[in-house]
Design a protein that fits this description.
With 526 residues, the protein is of the alpha/beta class. Helix content is 32%, strand content 16%.
């Protein structure tokens, strides 16, 4: 009998999970010891940029020359899929290496517990200076009121999850002109340029500040665009005229009939069709601006002499539907929402090209730590796939597992789903009525034919049902309704429990909040 390793989204014949991760980590440590200089990390991610809207991925309407240049220098991970394609759950998974049910981030606008051993902690323990610039989205425990300082300012301490050296961030903002940010006090500073341009300027200044320093660094740069709002007043002025009159076609799976499983955020309004063309134009203008910002950053990395000593990643948290399948926004297993760009560059070490390796959000942290030669926290649920990306191994996941535990940001029932995606098929099921969907993404890239309705794929459906149920059992994912978690896992939108039992010290949190409120009050009186 062949032994196998199950990692949620993978089964590797003949190798236990612990052995697989250990072998990859050991190889990475050996590689790190052979380097003459420490390896830095620059992790850049946009918000709501789908793979299909990038020039290098084939979109003729995208203006992304710098992203295309980076793609030629990088390994393109073509099957990068967020385990939960929505903002806060993605960020929680990225920084913990865990799935949505294990972070407790059931919906947006919850406060993550700092009890996890996170990416920033692992980097700091490994001797790295950490820096975080941009959108955070793991602090505020209130739906809306994002403009309030108490929701935007993340106080120094445990809720920055190990990013303790350099901080220029805001919990949530999608108004990109004169946008705010905070450093280590509740003094509200304002971006004088379009937000990504200013944020990139700060990132470049940070790179310059590393001159003469021997310690490696890890810089995370989180851009807000091309997330809506998509009115012209929220767009970069330099690219408005380039796209204002461009007719960008909708995908063939566009539908004016709303998806009955969509929540209020995902349901197109009655006049959506009359606005979607302009929404796409604004989206592409925003994408062109972050492309320009990326070019500035790439040039700075080269000019500072850091290119060969820096592992650089460009990606996104999730995509955008734009009416496909009768949906807008994200938080769904369809390709438009869950296929994201993931380019990884390390000159001389990672061979440029493309890979079909399946990479899910919880895999990112252990994979990058493995490439850096750093220990991986034991509670991490993703797999170290650095061997795959570095060309040392062809083993990898057989499937990516995805969770939709509720609505986008409200405690409402009826939209919950679970799914898995392998290199060819997507299988999904809804909790409401246990309906199933099965798509052949190679033969049917727009997912317009549900194969679950026919008898010819009964064996494959049975296989995927077993796979999904096994994964859910391993991760204690009970597939409950959204509101079930509210009273069991949260207190005033603070996460107090998870499928794996991670708690939050609400008394300690209360002291932090009270101290922060006093600082905010003192700042307002100046």
């Amino acid at each position: 009998m062949v032994n196998s390793m199950s990692r949620g989204s993978e089964t590797v014949p003949g190798v236990s999970r612990r052995a697989f991760v250990g072998q990859a980590a050991a190889a990475a440590v050996g590689m790190a010891q052979r380097r003459d200089r420490p390896l830095n990390l620059v992790y850049v991610f946009a918000d709501q940029l789908r793979r299909f809207s990038c020039g290098y991925a084939g979109d003729e309407f995208a203006y992304t020359p710098n992203l295309d240049r980076l793609a030629r220098q990088s390994l393109d991970v073509r099957n990068a899929v967020p385990s939960t394609p929505v903002c806060a759950p993605y960020r929680a998974s990225l920084l913990t290496g865990k799935y949505q049910s294990s972070t407790g981030m059931v919906i947006n606008e919850l406060r993550l517990s700092p009890e996890h051993e996170c990416f920033g902690h692992a980097l700091s323990k490994g001797g790295y200076d950490t820096a975080y610039i941009g959108k955070w989205h793991l602090w505020a425990n209130q739906l809306g009121h994002h403009e309030e300082t108490r929701n935007g300012f993340v106080p120094p301490g445990p809720y920055r999850l190990g990013f303790d050296q350099y901080w220029a961030a805001y919990n949530f903002n999608h108004t990109y002109h004169d946008a705010p940010y905070f450093r280590n006090t509740p003094h509200r500073e304002i971006h004088k340029q379009y937000e990504p341009d200013s944020q990139t300027g700060m990132a470049i200044d940070y790179l310059k500040s590393r001159r003469g320093q021997s310690r490696p660094f890890a810089l995370f740069l989180s851009w807000g665009p091309p997330h809506d709002a998509w009115d012209w007043s929220n767009c970069p002025s330099d690219f408005i005229e380039r796209f204002r009159n461009v007719k960008i076609p909708l995908r063939p799976n566009y539908s004016d009939t709303p998806d009955p499983y969509a929540d209020a955020w995902a349901t197109p309004g009655p006049d959506y069709r009359s606005h979607v063309d302009q929404f796409q134009q604004a989206y592409y203008a925003m994408t062109a601006d972050i492309d320009r910002a990326l070019g500035r950053l790439l040039d700075a990395v080269r000019e500072e002499g850091l290119e060969n000593d820096t592992l650089l990643v460009f990606t996104s948290d999730h995509g955008e539907m734009f009416g496909s399948h009768g949906r807008r926004a994200k938080y769904i297993f369809y390709e438009e929402a869950c296929r994201v760009p993931f380019l990884i560059r390390w000159p001389g070490r990672i061979r440029p090209g493309a890979t079909d390796t399946l990479l899910s959000t919880p895999d990112i942290m252990p994979t990058l730590l493995g490439a850096l030669g750093l220990p991986i926290p034991r509670a991490v649920e993703g797999a170290d796939l650095s061997g795959n990306l570095l060309g040392r191994s062809t083993r990898g996941p057989e499937a990516i597992y995805m969770q939709g535990m509720g609505t986008t940001a409200a405690w409402q029932d009826g939209t919950e789903w679970r799914a898995l995606r392998d290199r060819q098929f997507t299988y999904a099921t809804y909790r409401r009525d246990r309906s199933e969907l099965l798509f052949d993404n190679l033969a049917d890239p727009y997912q317009m034919k549900n194969l679950a309705a026919g008898r010819s794929h009964f064996a494959k459906l049975s296989h995927y049902r077993v796979q999904l149920q096994r994964w859910m059992k391993e991760h204690n994912d009970l597939f409950e309704s959204c509101t079930w978690y509210r009273g069991r896992w949260t207190n005033d939108r603070n996460i107090t429990n998870t499928a794996m039992g991670v708690r939050q010290d609400l008394a300690a949190l209360g002291r932090i909040v009270r101290r922060t409120d006093r600082e905010i009050e003192n700042e307002s009186q100046r």
